[in-house]
Design brief:
mainly alpha; 38% helix; 113 residues
Length: 113
């Protein structure tokens, strides 16, 4: 039995997001209006790329006052915000910096890697 049209389309979508590109890529989800579903869109995009892409994915909510990405996803052992990250930028950008330092600013999503 051949796959249905929707199954073929889903396979093509998964193949498209499973590609590996050299270097980092940025996807911005922007809308000045509140309640435009930016946060759920970012969470869903990050989950899809993490599940199928095989590389690291960082989803960032750049609103330090009202951002809810950290509340809507799996919580981490800290409450750091973008303001904390900016305060510590010298340490993070130093030649001695390592990936483990980012654990103080991100919330690892176990299901979505």
């Amino acid at each position: 039995m051949s796959p249905s049209e929707s199954e073929v389309a889903e396979r093509a979508d998964i193949h498209a997001v499973s590609q590996h590109w050299p270097g980092p890529r940025t996807i911005a989800v922007v809308n000045r209006k509140g309640g435009a579903n930016k946060t759920p869109t970012v969470a869903a995009l990050a989950a899809v790329f993490a599940r199928y892409g095989g590389g690291g994915v960082l989803a960032w909510d750049n609103n330090e006052n009202q951002g809810t990405l950290g509340w809507r996803t799996e919580q981490g052992p800290h409450s750091s915000s973008v303001l904390d990250l900016l305060r510590d930028q010298d340490q993070l950008l130093s030649p001695l910096a390592h990936n483990a330092l980012l654990a103080h600013y991100v919330h690892h999503q176990t299901e979505d890697k």
